[in-house]
Specification:
Strand 11, helix 5 (212-223) and strand 12 form a beta-alpha-beta unit. Helices cover 27% and strands 28% of the residues. The chain contains seven helices and 15 strands. The longest helix has 17 residues, at 268-284. The structure holds 4'-deoxy-4'-aminopyridoxal-5'-phosphate.
């Protein structure tokens, strides 16, 4: 909810709380022309902050908006805002762009009407007990049907209905497939499994978000001598796995403890991924606010 300390930069100023930034005539409210990114600040660390600030500008362009704030400036604003938090509670870093006006028939976003805000709010880092996962009857759209390369708000009602459907059957999250039936990600994160000491994860195919945490964990595992195969994977591959885990900026690396009717234990490759990520964050993720 909006109940934790929130600070938002908009139009040159920082405001506390939840300022009203769009109205009924805003294109973003009518047709959902919003993009966002998500990064974390915890224990003085904001791993890969620059990559998140670069990605939101790519998302803006992919949705037909203008990337009006250079990535380095988003980083600088983030540090400025974080300096106003005490750092005891982790902070979620959420830059956003949206369109105020539409073009032809009001439908395409008018790029010159792009607005930017940077929302920072307290959100504790969750220690990963693990979560349960079930194959969703809903699919991820193809790049021909949605701007899948943008981290756009309009892609998330699909994730939302997948989670609700999974929860109605007693699971926490949904394993999403593409139109061909290959597993691509969960409704909110990327997904990996391990089998006989090798780590497997879906190969980027334009139908899922090639997450920044995903790419970081793959690089860290490979540098540590673990074989990671990016390839087409199916739900049956996950059922036959030794372990399953998930990556995302929110909680970093989290084990899957149940998939369909199979139970899983957090395994050695999950632990190694999480430890490697934290070692990386401590070595390279410290920021001065
Ligand atoms: N897939 C989806 C659908 C997501 O919402 C997220 C979270 N942003 C991810 C994957 C993980 O991406 P990242 O590691 O960049 O946060």
């Amino acid at each position: 909810g909006n109940d934790t300390r929130t600070l938002t930069f908009f139009d040159g100023q920082w405001a506390e709380g939840n300022p009203g930034l769009i109205g009924p005539r805003s294109h973003a409210m009518w047709l959902g022309s919003t993009v966002f990114d998500g990064a974390r600040w915890f224990d003085g660390l904001a791993p890969d902050l620059e990559l998140h600030c670069q990605r939101i500008n790519r998302s803006a362009v992919a949705l037909g908006l203008e990337a009006t704030v250079p990535a380095e400036e988003i980083v600088r604003l983030t540090k400025e805002g974080l300096g106003r938090f005490d750092g005891k509670t982790a902070v979620y870093i959420r830059p956003m762009y949206w369109a105020e006006d539409g073009g032809y028939m009001g439908v395409p976003a008018e790029p010159t009407s792009t607005r930017f805000c940077l929302c920072l709010y307290e959100s504790p880092m969750i220690s990963p007990a693990g979560f349960s996962l079930s194959v969703s009857p809903f699919r991820r759209p193809t790049p021909e049907t949605m701007p899948t390369l943008a981290k756009a708000g309009c892609l998330y009602p699909n994730s939302g209905r997948a989670i609700l459907e999974a929860r109605s059957r007693g699971f926490d999250n949904a394993l999403m497939r593409d139109m061909l039936g290959n597993v691509v990600e969960t409704a909110t994160s990327n997904v990996f499994y391990a089998k006989d000491g090798v780590v497997y994860t879906p190969a980027p195919n334009g139908c899922f978000l090639n997450g920044i945490t995903r790419q970081r964990v793959i690089a860290l595992l490979r540098a540590d001598g673990v074989e990671v195969r990016e390839m087409n994977v199916t739900a049956n591959d996950f059922l036959a796995a030794d372990e399953i885990f998930s990556t995302g900026n929110h909680s970093k690396v989290v084990p899957v403890t149940k998939f369909e009717d199979h139970s899983f234990q957090p395994g050695p490759l999950y632990h190694r991924s999480r430890e490697l990520y934290w070692a990386f964050a401590k070595e390279f993720g410290r920021i001065d606010v």
